[in-house]
Amino acid sequence: MTNNLQKIRANVSVRKQIEAVFAIVGLSVILVAIFILLGLILQMFLEGTPRLTPQFFVSFPSRKAEAAGILSAWVGTALLMLVTALSAVPLGIASGIYLEEYAGKNWLSALIEINVTNLAGVPSIIYGLLALGLFVYQFQLGQSILTAGLTLALLILPVVIVTTREALRAIPNSLREAAYAVGSSKWQMIWDHILPYSFSSILTGIIIGLARAIGETAPVITIGALTFIAFLPDSPFKSDFPYISFDWLQAPFTVLPIQMFTWVSRPEQAFQANAAAAGAVLILMTLGINGLAIYIRYRFRKGIKW
């Protein structure tokens, strides 16, 4: 009995040592990765900060590095993310609600769940080829902002769906039963009780999806994004009724990642500084989108009391 107890203690001690070593190794790897990433970002900001002037934001690309700007690129990126968010977020949340709350637990639902999960790991170039054949050639949408936005929406849609399902699944069934007990219908239970408590977690998936979409290059190149563009899409607002125009959806476009790639491929050092500045702007736009989503998530969490 004493020998067995000693063996158990020795085994537990060895396992604790292995666990401590694994924790140290894991923490070291994470710290090294973070320091490398911070170093690269710091170097990019130091190199690109001198070019971050008001003229840089309101100028079109040019063959002269000193006169080149990112006006068409950041406008195209902003419009592209707008179309992506408006397409993917409502559809993704609605699909997640249906699969989790309405769909029956059968082989068809299991098949859909497996495919949605697998689609989250498909390389982005596959979505670009799919969009080229479907949106550009089949639906005749052209190489436009609408096509690019729908392509990136398909790219992040599985992430939004999976996150929505996990957020809904995390809500205890007692909340559903309490809503039914006071006479709520199924939709009233979801809209008034489940969604408010899970929306902060759903926003996490939306943040991850939009952060991935804003930096994608392969899909938008595949569907025909321009590497040089010296004009802006039509304004979404007009002076006569109905005061809103959707012509900009059919306009050609470029985005910041493509503009960066174009400048990086140039041998002049001045264009390298322009690329670094564009990268800094892209990071700031990403942080801005994430910050807005985090603020909305914070407001939701603050306003809900368990």
Unreliable parts: none
| CATH topology value of the largest domain | MetI-like fold
**What coarse outline follows from CA principal-axis ratios?**
globular
Query: Using DSSP, what is the number of strands?
Result: 0
Number of helices: 11
Count of folded domains: 2
The CATH architecture term of the largest domain is Orthogonal Bundle
Order of helices and strands: HHHHHHHHHHH
Percent of sequence in beta strands: under 5%
Text of the CATH class of the largest domain: Mainly Alpha
Global Rg? 25 Å
Proportion of residues in helical segments:
over 70%
Q: How far apart, in Å, are the first and last alpha carbons?
A: 50 Å
**The named CATH superfamily of the largest domain:** MetI-like
Main sheet attributes: strand count, strand direction, barrel closure = none
> What class do helices, strands and sheet pairing give?
mainly alpha
Q: Name the average pLDDT.
A: 84
Summarize the structure.
This protein has 306 residues and is mainly α. 73% of the residues lie in helices and 0% in strands.
